[in-house]
Amino acid sequence: MINQLIFAYFAAVIVVSAVLVITRKNPVHSVMFMLLLFFHIAGVFVLLNAEFLAAVQLIVYAGAILILFLFVVILLSVERESQAARANRFWPWLAGFGLIIAGEIALLVLRGSFPGEGKMAVQVAGAGVRDLGVVLYSKFLVPFEISSVILLVGLIGAVMLAKKKTNE
Amino acid sequence: MVTSLQAFIGQLLPLYPELVIITIALTVLLLDFFVDRQNKAMLGWYSLIGIVIAASMTIKLSGLAGSFFGGTFLLDPFAAYFKLAFYTACGLGILISMKYLDIEDIHRGEYYALMLFATSGMMLMASAGDLISLYLGLELMALSIYVLAGFMRSDSRSNEAGIKYLLLGAFSSGIMLYGMSLLYGLSGTTNLNGILVFLRGADLANPVLFLSMVMLIVSFGFKVAAVPFHMWVPDVYEGAPTSVTAFMSAGPKVAGFAVLLRIFAHTLLPLQEHSTVILAGIAMITMAVGNIMAIAQTNIKRMLAYSSIAHAGYALVGLAAGGREGAASVMLYVLIYAVMNMGAFGVVIMLRNAGVRGEEITDFSGLGKTNKAAAFLMLIFLFSLTGIPPMAGFIGKFYIFKSAVQAGMVWLAVVGVLFSAISAYFYLRVIMVMYMHEPKEEFNLVQSPALALALAIAVTAVIVIGVYPSGVLEFARASIIGIL
Amino acid sequence: MTPGSYLPGHFLPVAIFLFVGIAVGVGMLVFSRLVSPRRPYREKLMTYESGITPFSDAHQKFSIRYYIIAMLFLIFDIEAVFLYPWAVAYDRIGLYGLVEMVIFIIILLVGYVYAWKKGALEWE
């Protein structure tokens, strides 16, 4: 019961701050609401007993990705961005369309059942960092190594596209 | 637990082709610092050597089938077939790029490294036995191609292409992840075989199952550019450097179909009843929109973009037909499509010379008089794209529609043939412009041994497969056994 | 126990800590607003710039250089995150895990060398 109450709190804040992120005029405010959003998602992870993911959520998303967002916002002129319209004139139609899709998904999920509930992709004793490490570095070796290549490609892309032409 | 280094290296055996490609890409990245501007093509040849080595390894490993690394990585004839298709696409892509990159003044080592990274991502997609490795392989491929699409930094169209592709790609990845996590929530496993086992005993009327299936169709619809998820294609194909357009019209699309086949002809096979209807519907509107919109285009890259949408539609017909014949026809088709489409782009690249963009269809005026060889090559590729015998494109379409008829979808085959006939209009118009119109102005075509080699390979493949299709078809049929 | 089915009780101190932290912070703001005298005028509200009247907005555009630095930080941050479960589980994965991590680091090391040689780490 108390579990569900806490979840309801996290879920409500997540939805509200997500809406605020896309509706605020000042992009810096949007980024701040995104920070709130990330914190509450970390809360949901804790509730799912995925403590390590909660920590990663804070370190990577709140700590690094958000800073990146903030830099991008500051790269642009905050003042000019604040005056620009956040949506075009079709937004009520698009929002309506989005709501219909969301409603459909909600309806299907509510009417369906989840036979896999509680099952884990890999059966481990607990869900601690140690178990995660063992699974990640034995069974999921290939995805782990792919992720390093993905990071490398991201790095190449960032350096290549954002770097001013100099010593070439 | 493995305790010795030898044992570890031995365990990596199934991954050798991927490891070779990635290692070559890493060394290209580093060697780039020691290679002069004029000699960057050397890196391209070096990458090609890597591709040849990886290809020979893939062929050698074909005897070693099974699932490795806890089921996250599969080695089967199906994966091997697609890997050979990716090597072909990447190899042709590198060959047609070398001269073009010099002309556009964007000849940098990262280009080849990113091509190889994208190829390794596609290979991992074809070999994925788990939703997680599947997704990561896909992201590796997509991320490399986002960067490649925006490779011309000083060109605003290229920037736009890169950003559009990135945004829509990220959006479709989000939908895919949602679909995958629903599937995981249902089955309690991310392993593709495990999901199949679960579905065999599951309540198939569960709406969540349906939802996750639809989401996977939508997200892969984005990746293979099926209507109505095709909006990004014309702009991205037009804006990206032409050599990248050639590569991304072939490689990622083939990889997308590899995954579609793996998922819909294997993992979600128990849901075939529902998936067939949706896929057939999408196939129909994809063929319609692709072929009809292509008629109005004046830019050859945009026209080929819509043509690639239409071709995704034909391949989806085979996927909707399902079964062994359907799957084999899709495999045959995407390989033929990759080769003939890259060939057509290769001729478009020949027209790009200093000062001439060579992207308007009118730029082809009188090519039949000024450069007979190039015009003739374009003629062959366009005939093949139209599906005129004895080119390979005809064989591909023939088996696709045959499989649809065999599966009892005569209407879909009829629609396909009808739109094929419409497509003749815009393909043959280019041929007409080449042979009937007078040359506008004198300009020299780009000549380079690498480009000539690529076109020679493509044209040989198109004609050989067209005249003697049974070899490749048998290969495709033999490769399907692994997943069905 | 199945994840998600029980309340992570050992996070209670964290929750209390967060709650107290937020309460103190918000409390200070509210309390000072309640008790402090407020007599604003134009000069007082002006941005303090060593006594000189500010002549432009403080909201300046940042250079794109910050972006590259942030991007590099993000990538190596994620790399560090991967090291953590590896270190914790090291006694169970042994040499196998070591070789894996060496491969992982080498791949990213190539990226590091690349960024370095391209001058992405320089502030020119």
What does this structure look like?
The complex is a heterotrimer of chains A (168), B (484) and C (124). Chain A is mainly α and 168 residues long. Chain A folds into 2 domains: 1-87, Up-down Bundle (Four Helix Bundle (Hemerythrin (Met), subunit A)); 125-168. Chain A is built from 7 helices and no strands. Chain A has helices at residues 2-23, 27-47, 51-75, 78-83, 91-111, 129-136, 141-162. The mean pLDDT of chain A is 84. Chain B is built from 20 helices and 2 strands. Chain C is flat. At the A-C interface, helix 1, helix 3, helix 6 and helix 7 of A face helix 3 and helix 4 of C.
Summarize the structure.
With 484 residues, chain B is an all-alpha fold.
The biggest beta sheet of chain C reads: none
**What summary fits the major beta sheet of chain A?**
none
β-sheet strand percentage of chain C: under 5%
Span from first to last CA of chain C?
55 Å
Shape of chain C: flat
List low-confidence stretches of chain A: none
Number of domains of chain A: 2
Discrete helix count of chain A? 7
Strand content of chain A: under 5%
Write out key terms for the chains shown.
heterotrimer; B: 484 residues; mainly alpha; two-stranded antiparallel ribbon; 20 helices; 76% helix; C: 124 residues; Methane Monooxygenase Hydroxylase, Chain G, domain 1; 4 helices
Detail the topology: elements first, then pairings:
The complex is a heterotrimer of chains A (168), B (484) and C (124).
Chain A: H1 2-23, H2 27-47, H3 51-75, H4 78-83, H5 91-111, H6 129-136, H7 141-162
Chain B: H1 5-11, H2 16-31, H3 41-61, E1 66-68, E2 73-75, H4 77-104, H5 109-127, H6 131-149, H7 156-187, H8 192-200, H9 207-224, H10 232-239, H11 242-267, H12 272-295, H13 300-321, H14 323-351, H15 367-370, H16 372-386, H17 392-406, H18 410-436, H19 449-467, H20 470-480
Antiparallel strand pairs in B: 1-2
Chain C: H1 12-35, H2 42-45, H3 64-88, H4 90-117
